[in-house]
Amino acid sequence: MIWAVLPAAGRGQRFGGPIPKQYLHAAGKPLIEHALAALLAHPRVSGAMVALSADDALWPGWSELLGKPVLRCIGGGERADSVLAGLRALPGHAGDDTLVLVHDAARPNLRRADLDALIAAAEGDPAGAILGAPLRDTLKRAGAGRILATEPRDGLWRAFTPQAFRRGALTAALAEAAAAGVVVTDEASAMERIGLRPRLVEGREDNLKVTTPADLALAEYLLGA
Ligand code: CTP
Ligand code: MG
């Protein structure tokens, strides 16, 4: 069994504007609907858990989408808190070995082939797997608006979502990071903290997370194509 967990309790501060970015539309649908549909369309995915902010007035109230259950819970102050809340609210036992796909609600352009590759990698590996891509640009360390150094790019990847782990292992890893007061910005970092080495699955560069208005224009283009 595979479940999707979508952290969707952010406020979109870098985007700005009156509503959180996951509810902005691209190609006729809110970003969160694109993200949910991409996961629920996969035949192996049984349902989705969405973590919303306590004062969310924009959630459309879906209890199912594409014929599969959509459950919801209240998220937390940081992305990792929202993911942990989602994992704990899933049906079944918190320590079970359900495969979970954690995916940003603001990442609308996930393609089926990437999801297939991720699931295949994560199922065969107790450390789990994430989608990502190698860095392509030259990297500069900056200080006061000037270049301090050119950093080696070899071996550096960008981390995308979905990130796929066994529910029990990821819950324990995120709880450990929270107890230590460490804010992790993705699920893999929590697994790395407890000594695991999740697999990197190279995915499409156009699986973008909408962070700024320019990203929304790009998402509109990609989803409309
Ligand atoms: N998220 C969440 N709970 C939080 C913070 C973020 O569920 N406390 C979710 C966002 O809704 C988004 C995903 O995590 O789907 C990725 O986070 P990010 O891109 O940082 O979104 P925001 O936190 O909303 O944006 P910003 O950091 O610019 O405020
Ligand atoms: Mg954020």
TrEMBL record:
EC number assigned by the record: 2.7.7.60
Molecular function GO labels: 2-C-methyl-D-erythritol 4-phosphate cytidylyltransferase activity
Biological pathway: Isoprenoid biosynthesis; isopentenyl diphosphate biosynthesis via DXP pathway; isopentenyl diphosphate from 1-deoxy-D-xylulose 5-phosphate: step 2/6
Domain of life the protein comes from: Bacteria
Similarity field: Belongs to the IspD/TarI cytidylyltransferase family. IspD subfamily.
NCBIfam families linked: ispD (TIGR00453)
Protein name (Swiss-Prot/TrEMBL): 2-C-methyl-D-erythritol 4-phosphate cytidylyltransferase
